[in-house]
Specification:
The structure holds 2 protein chains of 2 kinds.
Chain A (H helix, E strand, L loop, with lengths): L1 H18 L5 H10 L2 H10 L1 H20 L2 H95 L2 H13 L4 E5 L3 E7 L14 H13 L4 E7 L6 H21 L8 E5 L12 H7 L1 E7 L2
Parallel strand pairs in A: 3-4
Antiparallel strand pairs in A: 1-2, 2-5, 3-5
Helix pairs in contact in A: 2-5, 3-4, 4-5
Chain B lengths: L1 H22 L6 H21 L6 H19 L3 H64 L3
Helix pairs in contact in B: 2-3, 2-4, 3-4
Classes of the chains: A alpha+beta, B mainly alpha.
Chain lengths: 305, 145
């Protein structure tokens, strides 16, 4: 009994001695947390059990402080601080969960907005496509009209120019144009304008050499430019050899040229006739090689209308 | 000298008195604390596994130290000390778990926020396209189409 009384007295003395001691820093920090109204309200709203628990520890720490019990102060201050920190983590978890929910709402709203804008875009795209198609068609029509107008103008000019040409003037123009054809010799006689073409074939052959195609194309172009003329293709040989063979060879060569003009150059076949004349009507001396080369020829004659 | 001795005695008595007051009615035995520390160790391992960012590494280490100390107290039949250690370790372990959960929640929130932003951008992009198309349509309409 005496011992017990002595202990109580000693404890009281110790408590009185510590009660006036400075408040520990950790407890002061905890004071700030426990007395911050906004913080407390947030923690209480999210995690009331943890706050209640922290309050109990805090109260015990304060009681220990009043009692001057340093070890118990430290113990409960630590428990209260950690418990409040745990509550703070729960607050952050709640904030994160709220952010997730808010994001779901944003996704939903954005999805609806996108659906709406997709539909709007599709509608507008359709309208624009239709209008652009109309614009394109109108432009094409305008271009066609322009083309037609240009063609009509050119046609009228050509008709006017043709009308102004006298037959003689046209014949002269044709002769001038024929004279401009490379590797060809043009002249005028009673039939019309004659274009003599040599070096179209290998000796004794009837197949046109590829090197002669350009000359024949130029002849075809002339035919198209002067559509009023019928065309006769006449084949000739030099005087050597059998007369019948020469006749056959010249006819075959004339036929090859006429065929080229019709098949390759698409001239109307009704405009063109061909015939072979063998060694008739030489235009050079058959006793000389260069003369014979000139006599081996095909003449394209633009017959006067 | 006498005063210092008295003060020290009083202090020891005070701690013991508080502890005794708090746990005097605790009739739990050593087996209870052994089991409690084992469970805490298991729980701590789960927390550590889940803690991919090491946000709670310090707390886990602290709890592990406390568990070791507590088990030592149990072994030496100092159950009151073991009880205090257990309480502190449980509170810190709970804090560690909350930290790990919070990191996960914030990661999910960041992902969801990014997803929402992407969805909003997609909607805004389509709206911009639609607005441009509307301007084009008005232009064509103004030209009489």
């Amino acid at each position: 009994m005496i011992r017990a009384s002595r202990i109580v007295i000693l404890a009281g003395v110790a408590a009185a001695a510590c009660g006036s001691a400075p408040r520990p820093a950790a407890l002061v920090a905890l004071d700030g947390k426990m007395k911050d109204p906004a913080h407390v309200a947030r923690v209480q709203a999210v995690s009331p059990e943890l706050y209640k628990e922290a309050e109990v520890y805090y109260a015990k720490a304060n009681t220990a402080y009043d009692d001057g019990d340093t070890k118990t102060i430290e113990f409960y201050t630590d428990l209260a601080s950690v418990t409040m920190a745990t509550a703070d983590e729960h607050v952050r978890i709640a904030d994160a969960d709220a952010a997730v929910e808010a994001s779901k709402g944003r996704v939903s709203t954005a999805g609806a907005a996108k659906t709406e804008q997709d539909a709007r875009l599709a509608d507008l795209s359709g309208r624009v496509a239709r209008m652009e198609r109309i614009a394109q068609l109108q432009q094409q029509q305008q271009l066609s009209a322009a083309d037609r107008a240009q063609l009509a103008t050119e046609l009228a000019k050509q008709k006017a120019a043709t009308a102004q040409l006298t037959p003689l003037a046209e014949q002269k123009a044709l002769l001038d144009d024929a004279s401009a054809i490379p590797l060809a010799a043009a002249r005028q006689d009673s039939r019309g304008v004659v274009i003599a073409l040599a070096d179209l074939f290998k000796p004794k052959k009837t197949q046109i050499l590829p090197t002669a195609h350009g000359t024949l194309k130029a002849v075809a172009e002339l035919a198209r430019k002067y559509p009023g003329y019928q065309i006769t293709v006449d084949g000739y040989t030099d005087s050597r050899g059998n007369e019948a063979a020469n006749l056959t060879l010249s006819a075959a060569r004339a036929q090859s040229v006429a065929q080229f003009l019709v098949d390759s150059e698409k001239l109307e076949f009704t405009r063109i006739k061909s015939s072979g004349h063998g060694a008739e009507n030489p235009i050079a001396d058959n006793s000389k090689a260069d003369g014979r080369a000139k006599n081996n020829r095909v003449e394209v004659v633009f017959i006067l209308p | 000298m006498l005063t210092r001795k008295l003060a020290m005695t009083a202090a020891i008595f005070a701690v013991s008195a508080v502890s005794a007051a708090a746990y005097a009615d605790d009739d739990r035995d050593a087996a209870h604390y052994t089991s409690a520390f084992e469970k805490l160790g298991t729980s701590l391992a789960e927390t550590q596994t889940a803690d991919t960012t090491n946000v709670a590494a310090t707390d886990v280490e602290r709890v592990r130290t406390l568990v070791g100390q507590g088990q030592a107290f149990v072994a030496s039949e100092k159950l009151e000390e073991a009880a205090l250690i257990l309480q502190r370790a449980q509170v810190i372990a709970r804090f560690a778990r909350a930290k790990v959960e919070r990191v996960g929640a914030e990661a999910r929130a960041a992902e969801a926020t990014a997803g929402a932003s992407a969805a909003e951008k997609a909607a805004a992009d389509v709206k911009a396209q639609a607005d441009a198309m509307q301007t084009k349509a008005k232009d064509l309409e103004a030209r009489g189409f």
